[in-house]
Design goal:
The complex is a heterodimer of chains A (about 400) and B (about 475). By secondary structure, chain A is an alpha/beta fold. Chain A has helices at about 5-15, 90-105, 120-135, 155-165, 175-180, 190-210, 235-250, 275-290, 295-300, 315-325, 335-340, 350-355, 365-370, 375-380, 400; strands at about 50, 55-60, 60-65, 110-115, 145, 165-170, 225-230, 255-260, 330, 380-385. Chain A has two domains: about 5-275, Aldolase class I (TIM Barrel); about 325-400, DNA polymerase, domain 1 (Orthogonal Bundle), CATH 1.10.150. Chain A has a six-stranded parallel β-sheet. In chain A, helix 3 (about 120-135) links the parallel strand 4 and strand 5. In chain A, helix 3 (about 120-135) packs parallel to helix 4 (about 155-165) and helix 4 (about 155-165) crosses helix 6 (about 190-210). The longest helix of chain A is centred in the middle third of the chain and has 24 residues, at about 190-210. Chain A is globular. Chain B folds into four domains: about 5-140, no CATH class; about 145-210, no CATH class; about 225-275, no CATH class; about 285-480, Uracil-DNA Glycosylase, subunit E (3-Layer(aba) Sandwich), CATH 3.40.470.10. Chain B has helices at about 25-40, 80-90, 95-110, 120-145, 175-180, 220-230, 235-245, 260-275, 285-295, 330-335, 340-355, 385-400, 410-420, 425-430, 445-450, 455-480; strands spanning about 5, 15-20, 45-50, 70, 145-150, 155-160, 185-190, 195, 200-205, 320-325, 360-365, 370-375, 375-380, 405-410, 435, 440-445. Chain B is elongated. The chains are: A alpha/beta (about 400), B alpha/beta (about 475).
């Protein structure tokens, strides 16, 4: 085999990493390089240093240590039976790339993952070694996200958490049957067992820091996971159920949804078509409803259609409101914060503005218009001093009125 | 009136005061002056605020000396929120910003809660200015690109060129200092420059683009990364543009790739799909249709060899399906499964176990014969995992039609075709494995394996094979009652 130069390796191993949706660099402990020997800072808010034409933010150097893998997961471009070009970085090469990119302000830090080479433990050791060199030899204080391998020794995962800001384990598929079919070498119980252990350590480390100022931090930005959407038969309702269970059981910071995307050299077990990107977007919206809008998982699931999937043409909050019209309209001048958060078209910011403004005056429709993004979208669901949507919420064609208009072609 | 005009004799009421700011982003200076003017009761209409290089001539006749407040003048008050917004708004490039800030400060004295009225034009304007400045600062943190040069003493110096919309360079020096505390760096901009040498921060006047270095060897690696991390299967140009507007592109090395990446995206996605095997049509719904389709299948290289597809045979409602690896030389010639040496051996064992081949559906995981030509002979080659996975499409179609209660997989290739992973026969044989569609999978060795053994080893394997067949026979009887 010819020896690959660094640039080839970077191309192969960045290309292999692009199917992972997460690139967040936010929510970690504040640190900077003043008084240290190295470089780097994290100040709470993540920074996107560039955007690719796929609309995704580039915040971290997101690469694999290697795309050699002893596993054979069908949706994965790096599976054993795929004949993609293979490459492997040494830990030092990744360290140099990270520091060189960081010094030029291209990135916030490193997101390192890997195929499984030799054994899970061997691979995990190499991942931890990269983080160790960065933190200990170079006093690097930027962001590090390590993907951990559920089958690896818990002690190695513990070390990963001591160096990294965030650790993650992908659950990959929302259903057990999907996992058995598409990722036959992975095991749901093992994945969730590892998540449980990581959660326990995060809680423990937080508790220790309350009592001892210099107790070591453990993954201060928490843990996250990713699910692939559209590769198996799981419906949106299944996916949301799984996500809410994961949020609850393991205190995850984020669940990422990644629409299955066609990969070169795919396996015949995969579906013929990729799911619409909008499906991914609707899942993120429903995720937000559960996390920031006080919706219970059951309630979001109620917004789905007969096949268990969320409608693609309207957002899940509107879909819910159309199904439960008896909850509307709500009076902007009296309704509780929780009720206002349920109104389609009112975001958390608009609700906060309404609550602040109504202390000073009784709101009219004009006032609401100034405080919200689009008055025509919220109007059917609100009562103001001078507005009451008499029969609007009873209209059978309300959905058609509110859904985005499909574009009509011009005569040619 | 709470002030005296010590510099000038007599009252100057009705005079225009002109405040010349030393720097366009000097909030502290504005604050000092504004405080004094409010204490002297100078209404907003009587003050003009002029920044360096601003339109000072208009107010040439204005008064440049200032009233001094009396020692007992009431203190000036403003809300916390105003102060927070004003610090940012003062950095905006709008020449009216200081007048706006003064107007709001003035209004605070009679209405301390004036900032809460979100519908007020002045309040909305200061919020807009604040937002624009915060965004510009955030984009500066994100889009500054340093280039490395030698500093003449053998050390490294990192220099960036950035063109902000507003007067934000000095205000953001702290961010870069905290991040690159031990680096020697400079950020040059048309609105002034900042320099950090690891110890102290230095400022200098406006610079030009040509003052900054024009390249860095690491940029090629960064561009490779940018091009590789982009997924052409999900083009969302609008989302990119809203976060990274074109005006920033000229100073970002990776941006020169964008148009090329977008133009090539559809071709690359099509390439990704066709490099895969995703172009299967609808799954055929009759055995005849499968038979016809597999003869045309060229989804993997085996189909390109000089051979014929071999379809499974047996009743379409068989309770037992026996799956082999692939047709051999004789099967290929006769067009029927399990008719060669291994097939004859299988028939013998089936008979002994009391399994009727006529009642069984017999087929292969891979539909074509894979071989290498050696002289006149065609030597069998095991199919690769990839080829088995590709061919799984057809065996799944057969299974969906026949719906067997029990499937017997002969050998590792057949087991992979059913399970999607490679298993060890010795570990999984003798036990039923439940599979997704509700049927039951049993795995045993391939009869050709027995043909390759002799002596004691063959006897031992033959016994195991017989035992597996017996167990399957019993299980089928149980399930079909």
């Amino acid at each position: 085999m010819t020896k690959l130069i660094l640039r080839d390796k970077l191309e192969i191993l960045a290309d292999a990493a692009k199917y992972d949706a997460s690139c967040a660099s936010s929510g970690t402990a504040k640190k900077n390089s003043l008084g240290g020997k190295g470089l780097g800072s994290t100040e709470g808010m993540g920074i996107c240093h560039a955007y690719a034409p796929d609309g995704r933010c580039i915040s971290l150097l997101k690469i694999l240590l290697t795309n050699h893998c002893i596993f054979d997961c069908h949706y994965c471009i790096n599976r054993k039976s795929s004949n993609v070009r293979r490459a492997r970085f040494t830990p030092q090469e990744i360290v140099d790339l990270t520091l060189n990119f960081y010094r030029r302000n291209y990135i916030e830090g490193l997101f390192l993952s890997s195929g499984i080479v030799k054994s899970s433990n061997h691979t995990m050791e190499q991942l931890v070694e990269v983080a160790r060199i960065l933190r200990e030899e170079h006093d690097f204080r930027g962001y590090i996200h390590l993907k951990t391998i559920p089958e690896a020794d818990p002690e190695l995962i513990h070390q990963a958490g001591l160096y990294a800001d965030r650790v993650s384990i992908n659950v990959e598929l929302p259903t057990t049957s999907g996992l058995t079919r598409l990722a036959p070498d992975k095991n749901e119980r093992q994945i969730e067992g590892a998540m449980g252990k990581t959660k326990a350590r995060i809680v423990e480390a937080k508790d220790e820091r309350k009592r001892f100022k210099h107790a070591p931090r453990f993954a201060p930005a928490g843990q996250s996971t990713q699910m692939i959407v559209g590769a198996d038969k799981a419906s949106d309702a299944d996916i949301m159920g799984k996500a809410s269970r994961l949020y609850g059981a393991f205190g995850l910071r984020r669940v990422y949804y990644s629409a299955f995307s066609p990969i070169p050299d795919a396996s015949a077990v995969l579906p013929l078509k990729r799911p619409p990107l909008m499906r991914e977007h609707r899942l993120y919206q429903s995720d937000w409803l559960m996390r920031f809008y006080g919706f219970a998982p059951k309630e979001v699931q109620q917004a789905t259609e007969a096949d268990g999937n969320l409608p693609l043409d309207i957002d899940p909050k509107l879909a819910w409101a159309l199904k439960f019209r008896e909850s509307f309209p709500v009076d902007v001048n009296r309704a509780s914060k929780e009720q206002l958060l349920r109104v389609p078209g009112l975001g958390a910011t608009s609700v906060a503005r309404i609550l602040a403004a109504r202390r000073h005056r009784t709101l009219r429709l004009d006032d609401v218009a100034r405080l919200t993004q689009s008055i025509s979208k919220v109007r059917p669901f609100l009562v103001t001093l001078d507005w009451r949507p008499t029969t609007l919420t009873d209209r059978a064609d309300l959905r058609a009125l509110l859904a985005p208009k499909s574009e009509q072609l011009e005569l040619f | 009136m709470a002030c005296s005009q010590r510099d000038l004799q007599g009252s100057k009421l009705g005079t225009y005061y002109v405040v010349q700011l030393p720097e366009p982003d000097d909030f502290a200076f504005w604050r000092e002056r504004a405080r004094g003017l409010v204490q002297c009761d100078v209404p907003p209409d009587w003050v003009a605020w002029v920044e360096p290089g601003g339109s000072g001539n208009l107010f040439a006749h204005g008064e440049r000396r200032f009233p001094l407040p009396d020692a007992d003048a009431p203190s000036v008050r403003a809300s916390k929120r105003f102060l927070k917004l004003a610090r940012n708004a003062a950095l905006h490039s709008d020449p009216e910003r200081f007048a706006l800030l003064y107007r709001l400060l003035w209004r605070h004295q009679s209405n301390p809660r004036c900032m809460e009225d979100k519908a007020d034009p002045d309040v909305r304007r200061i919020e807009e200015l604040d937002k624009a400045v915060r965004r510009d600062s955030h984009k500066m943190h994100a889009f500054v690109r340093f280039r490395q040069v030698e500093d003449g003493e053998g050390g490294e110096h990192y220099v960036a060129w950035f063109e902000p919309d507003h007067h934000i360079v000095r205000a953001n020096a702290g961010f870069f200092m905290r991040r690159f505390a031990n680096m020697n760096w400079s950020i040059l901009s048309p609105r002034g420059c900042i320099h950090w040498d690891g110890q102290t921060m230095r400022e200098s006047g406006p610079a030009q683009r040509s003052d900054a270095p024009d390249g860095d060897p690491v940029e090629d690696l960064w561009k490779s990364y940018y091009a590789s991390i982009f997924n052409p299967a999900r083009l969302k140009v609008g989302a990119m543009l809203s976060e990274m507007p074109r005006k920033y592109w000229k100073n970002m090395p990776e941006a020169e790739l964008i148009s090329e990446l977008i133009a090539g995206a559809q071709a690359r996605e099509a390439g990704m799909v066709s490099a895969g095997t995703l172009e299967f049509e609808e799954r055929p719904e009759t055995l005849e249709a499968i038979d016809k389709a597999i003869h045309q299948c060229r989804k993997c290289p085996i189909g390109e060899l000089d051979n014929h597809a071999v379809m499974g045979e047996g009743p379409a409602d068989a309770a037992l399906m026996i799956v082999g690896e692939q047709p051999g030389d004789q099967e290929d010639q006769k067009g029927r499964p399990f008719v060669g040496p291994a097939g004859q051996l299988l028939d013998e064992y089936l008979e002994r176990a009391g399994i009727e081949r006529r009642e069984t559906y017999v087929t292969n995981t891979v539909k074509h014969f894979k071989y290498v030509q050696r002289g006149k002979r065609r030597i069998h080659q095991s199919p690769a995992a990839k080829e088995i996975d590709t061919c799984r499409w057809w065996i799944e179609a057969e299974r969906a039609i026949v719906k067997p209660r029990v499937i017997l997989a002969l050998g590792a290739s057949a087991a992979r075709g059913m399970l999607g992973k490679t298993v060890s026969i010795s570990k999984v044989r003798g036990e039923p494995i439940a599979i997704e569609d509700g049927s039951e999978l049993w795995v045993t060795a391939h009869p050709s394996y027995l043909l390759r053994l002799d002596g004691e080893a063959r006897d031992k394997q033959a016994a195991l094979f017989e035992a597996d067949l017996a167990a399957v026979k019993e299980r089928v009887a149980e399930l079909t009652g």
